[in-house]
Structures are given as structure tokens and as C-alpha cells.
Specification:
Blueprint (H helix, E strand, L loop, with lengths): L10 H11 L5 E8 L4 E7 L3 E6 L3
Antiparallel strand pairs: 1-2, 2-3
């Protein structure tokens, strides 16, 4: 049996998290930018775009 080394949060789940934790951002779309030690997501809002970095300590 293989064990997972790295799991990836789905963009839809990240979007819901951002919408709940940071409502002032006004996030409407999320896409995965880059995988690695830190996973980077592009967050689009009606005003501007953001990068959200998800990492584990």
C-alpha cells in the first residue's frame, strides 16, 4: 500500500474557506497556481486578484 506524501486542497474548498474567514475580500473564484512545499491559489474578487498560500508547519 502506498501512503500519501502530499495532499492538495480543492480550489472549491479553498474558496469557501476564504469566503468565510475573509468576507471583505469578496472572493468569487479560486484556482490552483502552483504545487510544492506550499500550495498557491489564485483568488479572484470583483476588485482585484490575490494569492493565497496554504502550507503545513
Amino acid at each position: 500500500m502506498l501512503k500519501a506524501q502530499h495532499t492538495v486542497a480543492g480550489p472549491h474548498s479553498v474558496l469557501k474557506f476564504i469566503q468565510k474567514q475573509y468576507p471583505s475580500v469578496g472572493a468569487v473564484e479560486c484556482s490552483l497556481l502552483e504545487l510544492g512545499c506550499n500550495d498557491n491559489y489564485r483568488i479572484k474578487s470583483q476588485r482585484q486578484d490575490y494569492v493565497f498560500r496554504l502550507f503545513v508547519l
